[in-house]
Design brief:
Number of helices: 6
Order of helices and strands: HHHEEHHHEE
Largest sheet: 2 strands, antiparallel
Structural class: mainly alpha
Protein name: GntR family transcriptional regulator
InterPro entries: Bact_HTH_transcr_reg (IPR050679), Tscrpt_reg_HTH_GntR (IPR000524)
Pfam families: GntR
Strand order of the largest sheet: 1-2
Shape: elongated
Number of domains: 2
Keywords: DNA-binding, Transcription, Transcription regulation
Helix content: 40-55%
CATH architecture of the largest domain: Orthogonal Bundle
CATH class of the largest domain: Mainly Alpha
Mean pLDDT: 86
Length: about 140
């Protein structure tokens, strides 16, 4: 089968998954590498198939994340790990779980609780700092404003 036919075949299979609901709105597609392996095709051929689906408006590219099925995802906010942590901390602040004179959970505590890297936790705290909710005191931790 020629490459154009192969990319159309792959696009057809992925289209069927989207239409049938096996790939729900907001779900991310497997990576190009995984799709290449699954279909026994080059990444370029897979990329062509994905371009067909993008052109049809079935999927979209999300920078740094991959391609996802167009539509409302189940979680509209907090699609990145740091955003989820920041949203969770905002909710806990709103519930009054933390006092202004006590530090918020340490980076190490949040790394263990969420199973993420220290940089992800730092990014969450940076987001909260930019929103004016907390301030970070070097060596002492993060505190409520």
């Amino acid at each position: 089968m020629n490459p154009r036919g192969t990319s159309r075949r792959i696009a057809g299979e992925l289209r069927e998954r989207v239409v049938s609901g096996r790939l729900a709105s907001g779900a991310f597609l497997p990576s190009e590498g995984m799709l290449s392996e699954e279909f026994g095709a080059s990444r370029g051929t897979v990329r062509s198939a994905l371009a067909i689906l993008t052109g049809e408006g079935l999927i979209e590219s999300v920078r740094g994340r991959g391609r996802r099925v167009v539509g409302e995802p189940q979680v509209i906010e907090g699609s990145n790990a740091y955003e989820k942590i920041a949203l969770d901390l905002k909710a806990r602040v709103a519930e009054g779980e933390f006092s202004a004179d006590e530090p918020l959970p340490s980076e190490a505590e949040l790394v263990a609780a969420y199973g993420v890297s220290r940089n992800t936790v730092r990014r969450a705290y940076r987001s909260l700092t930019e929103d004016g909710i907390v301030f970070v005191r070097q060596g002492a931790g993060a505190f409520l404003r």
